[in-house]
Amino acid sequence: MNKIYHLKTCSTCVRILKELNVPSNFVLQDIKTEAITETQLEEMKDLAGSYEALFSRRATLYKSMDLKNKDLTETDYKNYILEHYTFLSRPVMIINGDIFVGNSKKNVEAAKQALQG
User: Fold this and answer.
1) Angle between helices 74-83 and 38-48 (to 10 degrees)
2) I need a labelling partner for 21 at 20 to 30 A (CA). Which of 10, 40, 69, 113 fits?
3) Residues facing residue 95 across a β-bridge
4) Computed over its alpha carbons, how large is the radius of gyration of the chain?
5) Exposed, middle or buried by CB within 10 Å (0-12, 13-18, 19+), for 14?
6) Model pTM?
7) From start to end of the chain, where are the E strands?
8) Model confidence over 73-93: pLDDT tens digits?
9) Residue ranges in the chain modelled with pLDDT below 50
10) What is the 8-class DSSP label of residue 94?
11) Which H or E element spans position 20?
């Protein structure tokens, strides 16, 4: 299944979705209004290789909770992502079995290439 986990209120996510010209057969999940399930997160982790790869260190909560000074485990990353959507590096795009995490230019270009097939 082709799916994009995003935040409707995030201007970067909105820009990337427009840039990708997402086909109508994609499932778009706004992670603020429809929380990520543990099963969905497991699927993302299996594709990305780790929970850490899905974790956003740019989140305001990351700074306010002073998490950079803690040794986080894979379980910690998983729990933080499930606890609050802001910890998921977004958007997360699953295209034809491949995963693209985050909004770097390189990542968005790779996702575009995957969409073009």
Assistant:
1) 130
2) 40
3) 98
4) 14
5) middle
6) 0.94
7) 3-6, 27-30, 92-95, 98-101
8) 999 999 999 999 999 999 999
9) none
10) E
11) helix 11-20
